[in-house]
Amino acid sequence: MSKTVPAVPKTAKLRAVASTGYRKGEETRQRILDAALKAFGEASFRSVTTRKIAEAAGVSLPTLQYYFGDKEGLYRACAEAIVERYRSHTTSAAAQAAAALNDDCSPESARVRLKAIIGALAEFLVGSREAERWAQFVARELRDPGPAFEILYERLWRPGVEITARLIARILGGTESDPAARIQALLLISSLLAFQSGRSISLRTMHWSTIGSEELAIVLSSLDAQIDAIGRNQYSSPSRTGGKEPAHVRSSSAASLA
User: Fold this and answer.
1) pTM passes above 0.90
2) I need a labelling partner for 44 at 20 to 30 A (CA). Which of 177, 205, 221, 241 fits?
3) 16-69 adopts what CATH topology?
4) CA 33 to CA 158: how far, in whole Å?
């Protein structure tokens, strides 16, 4: 006597089909993004065509247009994808730093938080091969701002520089609008680009064939040393300030004598 096989509910079948379709759709979308990031990194926004990107991704032009609309929509989507990947690696450290600053943390606590943020960023930019995929895209936007510049600036660069500058200002004992803190923030963050867009030069200079865990540890140690030096030896050369201490140091010195 044969057994009756229970019928699969129609709704379960529909969900399975929908899930499979969604997964394939996401894979197709990601394939188009990867091809676009490579194309826009190698050539300018004007010279790249959506037809070439579609061919590189192995999809039809209508499929590309279905997911991203026109070329500018695809370009902006590339920038948004980059922002999300950066954030996934740095959001936790940035949130903890902001909370510490709001709690009026000590200079040394700010130094610890700064190391955490820069360390997280370095692990992503220097130690991860993932960031290499869009390094040229970001470098091109820095050199020649295009449709994605505002997305990258407002959602990635400005917040990153702001929290870094606030931490440095706390370490220095200055105000959060201190230009010196902003300059140091820019220099600290931009130093990591030597291992991203300038990766080939960095590898050759360091006589490294790649950047693995040991090489990354050396980079992180050097960054920690830079952060440890902030505010400790900054006034050792009088010629830098015309033989005078900076204004915020002079004012704090005067206050202590009053």
Assistant:
1) no
2) 205
3) Arc Repressor Mutant, subunit A (1.10.10)
4) 24
